[in-house]
Design goal:
Layout lengths: L22 H16 L7 H9 L5 E4 L2 E4 H15 L10 H21 L2 H24 L3 H28 L15 E3 L2 E3 L7 H20 L5 H18 L2 H15 L7 H18 L19 H13 L1 H4 L20 H33 L4 H20 L8 H16 L2 H10 L9 H7 L1
Antiparallel strand pairs: 1-2, 3-4
Helix pairs in contact: 1-2, 1-3, 2-3, 2-6, 3-5, 4-5, 4-13, 5-15, 6-7, 6-8, 7-8, 7-9, 7-14, 9-14, 13-14, 14-15
Length: 454
């Protein structure tokens, strides 16, 4: 096991309570706010998407110790515009919405009790805006499969210039997004490997984001929706973006995505497959000398992965269960060397809000999978089934990645934006609207023919 090197301010929030704003970033923010006011509904999500993907997430304006990141400002502006234009009309709450609201409310209470200060509640409220706000935007503006397809096309287009900048960063060793502030100027090097991050807070965040999109792009390619040439180029670009981050977690996400897409022909038997997988894990746990989660320590796909740290974090969270299960804990640093770095989303939820917050988060994810399963059983043509399946596989890659990393920076917004979109397209109302609103998704074989040949 290699000794982990802990840099200065490791585990802390480097830019908190400090205004970080460069002229190029301010211009981009003002243009995005103008776009929020002028763009029609079908493009309302685009300003948030561009700010989140193309600008460092650390950009912020601090007002009386309150941090308003550029992404948070765009979220608030977009939701305000949506309220003024009546876009909330017709939005019906489902189980994922209820669970997320409960998760948010309990998070505010638990973190306030944990820190024993009003400042803790304010900090938690800021995080709620980032997550629940982005989720609401996804629910509002991704309400059909055509909306989801349009979003994926935009991201495919963005991936082209992003790959050019990633390659320039690798060649020159200079991160061109550093002109905005919030990301280092020099490229990160670990074990001799260059780890490109672009505007993202960390190379792993960049890699996981682009890796999570591949199943959805692959679904469009398989369903022959849109130009296959464009989709092929976009998939290659995203794959190269993942490779340039030189991180095991994004590579694992790609492999999980490929595995999930291969199960499309068995989609009607997923309950049996999931049950069998659970039994296999239980069998391995009973037959192995070490616990089954020790397998994480053996994963190293980038010649420098810290798999043992991730295993030890899970083990120590179990060992210290009595310390955090009620409302969380203020520190995990004493659990072991480097364990203030909580590289597990599920444990991160527990540490910040106790067992209840962890269960609400897991329940939220599970409820989305259930909605996807219901939408798939309702039928639909080949294109609709592929896109729903690709969305489920993308969510699966996030769930697997959560075992190795806790999302931060703009990745939080992008994940909840996607989650809200998936909930939107799996609603019964969205499914009934699909034939009228999704001409690009029509013309494929009906679902019974898919079952016969699938």
């Amino acid at each position: 096991m290699n000794e982990r090197q802990m840099p200065e301010n490791f585990g802390g929030v480097l830019w908190a309570d400090h205004t970080l704003m460069q002229p190029p970033g301010l211009v981009a923010l003002l243009l995005a706010l103008l776009a929020v006011l002028l763009l029609p509904r079908r493009y309302a999500i685009l300003p948030l998407l561009l700010i989140a993907v193309a600008l460092p997430g650390a950009q912020r304006i601090a007002v009386f110790s309150l941090d308003f990141t550029f992404i948070r400002i765009i979220i608030l502006a977009t939701l305000s515009a949506a309220a003024l234009r009546g876009h909330f009309r017709g939005l019906r709450l489902g189980m994922p919405d209820v669970l997320l609201i409960l998760w948010m409310c309990w998070g505010l209470i638990a973190y306030g009790l944990l820190t024993n200060s009003w400042h803790g509640v304010v900090t938690s409220a800021g995080g709620a805006v980032d997550s629940v706000g982005a989720y609401l935007i996804g629910r509002l503006y991704i309400r059909s499969l055509e909306d989801l397809r349009r979003l994926l096309v935009w991201l495919g287009i963005i991936s082209l210039p992003m790959l050019v900048l990633f390659l320039l960063e690798r060649i020159t060793g200079y991160n061109f997004f550093s002109v905005f502030g919030g990301v280092p100027e020099e490229i990160i090097v670990r074990n001799g490997r260059l780890r490109v991050q672009g505007p993202f807070a960390h190379p792993i965040m960049a890699g996981v984001f682009w890796a999570s999109l591949l199943p959805c792009l692959g679904a469009l390619w398989m369903a022959k929706v849109g130009s296959r040439t464009f989709l092929t180029i976009a998939i290659l670009c995203m794959g190269l973006l993942v490779i340039n981050t030189a991180s095991s977690t994004p590579v694992m996400a790609v492999l999980c995505g490929m595995f999930g897409m291969s199960l499309f022909v068995l989609r009607r038997h997923m309950r049996w497959i999931c049950g069998g997988a659970l039994l296999c894990l239980i069998g391995l746990h009973l037959s192995m000398q070490s616990p089954v989660w020790h397998l994480i320590s053996r994963i190293d796909l980038s010649n420098g992965s810290t798999g043992w740290h991730r295993y030890n974090l899970i083990q120590q969270a179990i060992n210290h269960f009595d310390e955090w299960w009620q409302i969380g804990t203020t520190s995990t640093a004493y659990w072991g060397w480097g364990l203030q770095d909580i590289t597990n989303q599920y444990i991160y939820e527990g540490v910040n809000g106790g067992l209840l917050q962890m269960l609400l988060f897991v329940g939220f994810l599970g409820s989305i999978f259930l909605r996807l399963g219901s939408a798939l059983r309702r039928g639909g043509n080949r294109a609709e089934q592929w896109l729903l399946w690709g969305s489920g596989v993308a969510l699966f890659t996030h769930c697997v990645s959560f075992l190795a990393v806790a999302y931060f920076g703009q990745m939080v917004n992008l994940f909840y934006l996607f989650a809200g979109g998936v909930v939107g397209v799996t609603s019964l109302a969205a499914y009934r609207r699909a034939p009228a609103r999704s001409p690009a998704l029509r013309g494929a074989r009906p679902s019974n023919e898919v079952h016969a040949h699938g």
